[in-house]
Write a structure and sequence with these properties.
- This protein has two domains: 209 residues, Up-down Bundle (Alpha-lytic protease prodomain-like), CATH 1.20.1510; 100 residues, Alpha-Beta Plaits.
- It is 69% helix and 10% strand.
- It is elongated, with a radius of gyration of 25 Å.
- The longest helix is centred in the first third of the chain and has 34 residues.
- Strands 1-2-3 form a three-stranded mixed sheet.
- By secondary structure, it is mainly alpha-helical.
- Helix 1 runs antiparallel to helix 4, helix 2 runs antiparallel to helix 3 and helix 3 runs parallel beside helix 5.
C-alpha cells in the first residue's frame, strides 16, 4: 500500500512538472510575441510551477525514506514542508505578476503607453491551457484522494488555480482584441489575485499539518463512537492528535471502572487501540491512557472534550505532557 501511494505521489509530481515545462515555454513565448500581459503572466505562473515542482519532487523522494532511529515516525512530514514551499512560491509569483500587470494597466490608462495589439493565437493558447488544466485538476485530485498525500492535494489545488487564472487571461485577451486594451493587463492582475488566494490556502493547510492541533470534530466523533463499542470503556476524557504527513498519531484518555485490575485496564486499552487501527485510515500510532472514571466528566459532548483539549494545549504549549 505504501509503495503504491509513493508511486502515485511521484507520478502526480512528474506529470505536473512535464506539462508545466511545456506550458511555461509556450505561454511565455507567445505572451512576449503577441504583446499579451495576461498570457505572459500565465507563462510566469507556469515557470514558477516548474521551479516548485522540482522542489516537490525532491521532498517527495525524501519523504518516502523508511523510518529510522532518529525518525521513528518516518519522514512523511517532509510532504507538509514541501507543501509550504509550494505555497511560498505561489505567493511570491502572485505578488510579482500583480505588480507588473497593475503597472502596465496604469500606463495604458494614463496615456504613457499604447497597446500594441494582441495576436489572435494568444487566445487559443490561453483556452488550450484551460482545457489541459481541467483534466489535470480532476486527475491529480483523484490521485491525491487515493494517496492521501498533502503535497499531491496542494498540486491539485494549484491546477485548479490555473484553471481560474487561464480563464481570466482568456477573457482579458478577448477584451484586448476587441477594443478594450486595458482588459488584458486587468486580467493579469485578476490572475495574480487568484494565484495569491491559492498560495495562502496552501500555506494555511500545510502549517496546520506541521503544528500540534486539536483533532477535527469529525475525527473526534468517529473515535468516540468506536470506543463506545469496547466493553469496559465508560467515558472519553481527552482526545489529541498529531499529523505526520498523511499519518495520524492519536493520544487519548479513557475512564474505566476503578475496581478493575491493571491487567484488565491494559486489555481494555489494547482493544481500543486495535479497533481504531482497524477502522481509521492512516493511523500510525495510538497512545491510550486510562484511569478510574470521573463522574463529573460523564456525559460530556465532543465539543466539551475538544474545548478541554484546547485548554491543555494553551496551558502547556504542546499536546503531550
Amino acid at each position: 500500500m505504501t509503495h503504491e501511494r509513493d508511486r502515485k505521489s511521484l507520478w502526480a509530481v512528474n506529470l505536473g512538472l512535464g506539462v508545466n515545462i511545456v506550458l511555461s515555454a509556450v505561454k511565455t513565448t507567445f505572451g512576449i510575441l503577441s504583446h499579451s500581459p495576461a498570457l505572459l503572466a500565465e507563462g510566469i505562473n507556469s515557470t514558477s510551477d516548474v521551479a516548485y515542482y522540482v522542489v516537490a519532487s525532491i521532498f517527495v523522494r525524501l519523504a518516502n525514506k523508511p523510518a529510522d532511529d532518529e525518525h521513528p515516525y518516518g519522514h512523511r512530514q517532509l510532504e507538509s514542508i514541501a507543501s509550504l514551499v509550494v505555497g511560498a512560491f505561489v505567493v511570491a509569483t502572485a505578488i510579482a505578476v500583480f505588480w507588473d500587470s497593475v503597472d502596465k494597466m496604469w500606463d495604458l490608462l494614463d496615456g504613457g503607453a499604447t497597446s500594441l495589439g494582441t495576436h489572435p493565437l494568444a487566445l487559443w493558447v490561453a483556452l488550450g491551457t484551460v482545457a489541459i488544466k481541467i483534466f489535470l485538476f480532476f486527475y491529480v485530485r483523484k490521485l491525491g484522494k487515493e494517496a492521501r498525500s498533502p503535497i499531491v492535494d496542494a498540486l491539485a489545488y494549484d491546477h485548479r488555480n490555473d484553471i481560474f487564472s487561464a480563464s481570466a487571461a482568456s477573457l482579458g485577451i478577448f477584451l484586448g482584441q476587441n477594443g478594450f486594451p486595458w482588459g488584458d493587463p486587468l486580467a493579469g492582475a485578476l490572475v495574480a489575485l487568484l494565484i495569491l488566494r491559492t498560495g495562502i490556502f496552501i500555506l494555511r493547510e500545510s502549517s496546520v499539518e506541521l503544528m500540534d492541533a486539536v483533532p477535527s470534530k469529525e475525527l473526534a466523533q468517529q473515535i468516540s463512537a468506536l470506543i463506545k463499542n469496547v466493553r469496559g470503556v465508560e467515558q472519553l476524557e481527552e482526545l489529541q492528535a498529531h499529523r505526520f504527513g498523511p499519518h495520524l498519531v492519536v493520544n487519548l484518555t479513557i475512564g474505566i471502572n476503578g475496581a478493575l485490575t491493571v491487567k484488565q485496564g491494559d486489555q481494555i486499552a489494547s482493544e481500543v487501540e486495535a479497533l481504531i487501527y482497524e477502522t481509521v485510515p492512516n493511523m500510525r500510532n495510538i497512545h491510550v491512557h486510562y484511569h478510574p472514571a470521573d463522574e463529573s466528566l460523564r456525559g460530556r459532548s465532543i465539543d466539551e472534550i475538544l474545548a478541554e483539549t484546547r485548554k491543555q494545549v494553551s496551558r502547556h504549549g504542546h499536546l503531550y505532557e
